[in-house]
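Archive transcription. Copying these from loose printouts into the bound notebook so they stop getting lost. Printout 1 of 2:
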Amino acid sequence: MSYPSPARRPKPAVDAARISGGIKLLVALVGLMWVSEIVDTALNGALDRYGIVARDPEGLVGIVTSPFLHLGFGHLISNTLPLVTLGALIAISGAVRLLSVTAIVAVIGGIGTWLISPPHTITIGASGLVFGYAAYLIARGVFNRRIGQVLIGVVVVLVWGSALLGGLLPQDGISWQGHLFGAIAGVMAAWFLTDERRQVS
C-alpha cells in the first residue's frame, strides 16, 4: 500500500530569503555609516557631538547614534572591513538575528561606555559593534554546543584575536571602554539568543 509523501517545505528558498534579508540589513547599516560620515565631513564634524558623552544624561542619545559616527574616513574604513566580515557571519542567520545582536551590543555596550569613560569624553565609532560581533561569534558555539559555530569562533580568534586583545589595552584616543563593553555585550547576546532559550515556551 502506498501513502502520499508528506509535503516538503522549500527550505533552500527560505534559507536564501533569510540570508538575503540579513545581508540587506548589514548593507543598510554600513551604508548609513558612510552617508553619516559624508554629511559629517560636509558639516566640518558637527555630528560628532552626538556620540556617547560620558556621565552626561544628554549624552545617552549617543548609544543609538555613536556607531554611525566616525572621526574621518580613515577611522570609518578601519571599522568597515571587520564589521562587514563579522556581520556577514551573523547575517546568514537572518535580519532578525543581526538586528537583535546589534541592538543588544549597542545598548549594553553603550551604557557601559557611558558609565566608565572619563567624564564628558565623547565616544564615536563602530568598533564597539565590531568587538560585540566578534565576541558573539566566539561565544555562540559554546552556548549552542554546535561544532560548526565553534569552528567559526576559532577562526575569529585566529584572525582577529591579537587585534581584539590589543584593543582592550588603554591607549590615548582609543575607547578601550567601548571595546570592553562591546565584547561583554556580545557574550551576553550569545547567551540570551541561544537556541535552547529561544525554544522555551
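Printout 2 of 2:
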Amino acid sequence: MNIIIIDYGAGNIKSIQFAFKRLGVDAILSNNIDEIKTADKVIFPGVGEASSAMKMLRESGLDKVIPTLKQPVLGICLGMQLMCNFSEEGNTKGLGIFDVEIKRFSNAVKVPQMGWNTVSNLKSALFTGVKEKEFMYLVHSFYAENCKESIATTTYETSYAAALQKDNFYGVQFHPEKSSLAGEQLLKNFLEL
C-alpha cells in the first residue's frame, strides 16, 4: 500500500511515520503533487501556526491539490484545522473541505489544552474497535466547533469536534500517533478504509 505523508514544512511527520512503521507500513514523506495524487492513502499532518502553514501550502500549490484528492485523506491536528473554512489563528482562510470554523479557547482555561482527554459520540469506520470515552492525546489552542461533519466530540471549556468526516476526508484534532493503543487502532482503521 502506498501511503504518503504530506511534507510541507509544518508537521510532526517523523512520529507519524514511526507509528505506521509499528503497523508494518512504510509511509513515504513527500510534497510531490503527482506522488500525492496517486497515493492509496494520504496523511495531512500539521504542527505550528495556521497562517504560516497555509502560506506554505499555497507556495507549493498543495492548497489547490488537497481538496481535489479522491483517496482517503486524514488530517491530523493543524492539518484537520486547515481543512476547515476559516481559523481565528492569524485570520486564516482554510481549504474549505469541512464546513466549520476554528475558534480559540478563551483565557478562562489553560491554553494550549495539553494532555489526555476522552472522545465520545464516535461515528464512522475510523473508530471501529475504539471504545466510547477512550483517551486520546491533544495539544492545541484552537478547536473546530461541533457541526454536522463531527464524528467524535470531546470537552475542554466547551464541547467541540474531536474528529470530522466528509466523503473521503477525515480529520482528527488529537494525535493518534501519540495516543497509545487507541490511536494505533485508529491508524489501522484508516489503512483499511
